[in-house]
């Protein structure tokens, strides 16, 4: 990125990092209310602004929309898991469209197997953890969309160890949420992992996609 680009767009990334990291330390505030909900959504909302200004063409608009629905989902989850999950699902579907538009020309068998594992194992693990709780099928269906998002990210032309890894971190974060809700893992463990994995994943995805669209970071082996 040029110095001018950094000076123009670094503030959005810096604001995202400040909001996302600081939220981790205030998330358990019992009197947070609306301001805490907005604080939660701010980290990814700033990524959406960054993508909107820095991205290029249709793909730039798509990654901005992915981050926007992520930010809306962050806020809505504090009110309803169903509403929040639905907003995230829309964002994942947009992300799938983005990654399919940017398929990698050549993929190895190991890369295909990794993508297949993400596609199949993500909803399977979610189902095994949440059955027979209410809405376990909804959790499995949502996880199927998340798994498809991660699989297509892994097979896209975007850097695998930024965008692909970010998508995998998103998957793991969601599985930790389900493990907490199902009582598979105690909150004393999941509370330390869910937000850092999620926000770190979103940050890697947004910056990896945008910088690739700017022509700075694409390599066929990335």
TrEMBL record:
Keyword Metal-binding: no
TM ranges: 12-27, 33-53, 60-77, 83-100, 112-131, 137-156, 163-180, 192-213
InterPro entries registered for this protein in UniProt: TMEM86B-like (IPR012506)
The organism's place on the tree of life at top rank: Bacteria
Compartment list: Membrane
Record's keyword terms, sorted: Membrane, Transmembrane, Transmembrane helix
Membrane protein topology class: Multi-pass membrane protein
Main localization category: membrane
Pfam families found in the cross-reference section: YhhN
Family in the record: Belongs to the TMEM86 family.
Protein name (database record): Lysoplasmalogenase
